[in-house]
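thought: fold this chain, then report.
action: predict
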Amino acid sequence: MRKYQFWFATGSQDLYGDECLAHVAEHSKIMVEHLNKSGLLPYEVVWKPTLITNELIRKTFNEANADEACAGVITWMHTFSPAKSWILGLQEYRKPLLHLHTQFNEEIPYDTIDMDFMNENQSAHGDREYGHIVSRMGIERKVIVGHWADAKVIGRIASWMRTAVGIMESSHIRVVRVADNMRNVAVTEGDKVEAQIKFGWEIDAYPVNEIADYVKDVSKGEIDALVEEYYDSYEILLEGRDPEEFKKHVAVQAGIEIGFERFLKEKDYHAIVTHFGDLGALQQLPGLAIQRLMEKGYGFGAEGDWKTAAMVRLMKLMTEGMKDAKGTSFMEDYTYNLVPGKEGILQAHMLEVCPTIAEGKIGIKVNPLSMGDREDPARLVFTSKTGPAVATSLIDLGNRFRLIVNTVDCKKVEKPMPKLPVATAFWTPQPNLATGAESWILAGGAHHTAFSYDLTAEQMGDWGAAMGIEVVYIDKDTTIRSLKNELLWNSVAFR
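observation:
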C-alpha cells in the first residue's frame, strides 16, 4: 500500500481579526502534533493552513484529490465558518471525509471567559453550520464528537482512518477468477460491471491451464526450498502415511503457491478464486498454497466467489500494520451445535482458511478430498482464536448490493475433533444463534463470509455507506421484527 496521510483542515473566517486567526492556527498545530505523538493513530496527520475563503477551501480539497498519499481530510471549525464558502470545495472533493466536532479547550474557563473567548472558541456554533451544508449536499462523511486529546476520541479517529484506507484501496483491488463459478450456485454470482462501478474492483477470468502453466514452470529447487520452510514452520501430521509420499503431496502445494503468486504478481492481481470443478492440469485442489497466499495478504473466495475474495482482500488492507492483530480470513458456515446453552456454528472450509486466525500450533495434513477428482491435497490445520469478531457477506440482490455485517463471539469447541482434517472456528452470532441465523437468512446472507477479529461492525458499515450501498447490521440489538421493517424500508430507500 501507499504510505497514506490524512490532512487536518481547520475552518474559520477573518471577521475576528488577525490575532484570532493566529490563535486558530496555533491551536490546530498543537492538536495535530498531539494526535501524531499519541501513538494511537495508524497514519500521520498533516496540518494545513486555516481555511477562510471559498478559493482556499476549493484549492485545498482539489489538492487533496490530486495527492495520492492523502487518504482523507479531517475537518474542524474552530470559529464560525460560513458554510456557503465550503460548497464548491465539497462538491469537487472525492475522498473520505471526517468531521471532527471538538474544541480546543476541554473546560469552560469560568473565571476569565469573555466575548473574545466566545468568538474565538465557538466550535459548537461553527460545526453545526458546517454540518448543515454537508448534510444538505448529501455528502457521506464520518462525524466524531469529543475532546481531541481524549484517547477514546483518538481511537475513533484511528478506526475511521482504517475505513478510509479501505475506501481508497477498494478502487485498486483486482480479482482473478481461475475458471468460473460453481455450476448452479446463486450466491457466488453477481454483476461484475456494477461491482467495478460501485467499488472499483476489476474482476477478470483466466483459463485454469494458463495459471497451471506457471505452476508447471516452477523449478524443483524452488519447491524443495519452500517445502523445507513448511517443515520448519509447521507440525507434520503424518497419521500413518509414508513420510516420503506425504512430502510429495506437500511439494505439489509448494509448486502451486510459488506459481500462483508469480502469476498474481506478474498480472498485478490481489485476490483469487478457484473452483474444485475445474482444476485443469493442477494435480491438487489448491489448499495449503491458498492458505499461505491469504496469510501474505491476498484475498480468496472458493467456488468462484469473487465478491468474498475482494472483501477478504479489502479487510486485510484495512488491518494492515495493526498491532496485535488476530487475523482475517475467508470462512464458510458448515454445521450447527444446537445443544441449549452451547449453541454455535462450526466454521471451516474444505481446505482454505487463513492461518492468521490460528491459535496455537499449526499442522500440515494430507487427506483425501471427495471433490475435485485429484490427488489428496495438503492443507494447514488449526483451531481459531477466541473473542469478538465480525462476519460479513456482500450479496447482489439483482438491483443493488447489500452488505450484511454480523457481530459474532468466537469460542472454544467443547471437545477435540480428531477426524476433521481442516482448520476450524466456532462462533455464536449475536444476539443469539436462533435470532442471528434467522436474521442472516432473511437478509439473504451467503454461506461464505469475509471474517475478521480486527475490524468492527462500525468500520465495515462506514465503508458500505461510503460505497453508497445498503448495510444491514445483525448484533446484540437485533430483533426479527425490527430487521424485517429495516429490510422493507431499505427496499424503497435503495431502489
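thought: worth noting. The mean pLDDT is 96.
final: C-alpha cells above.
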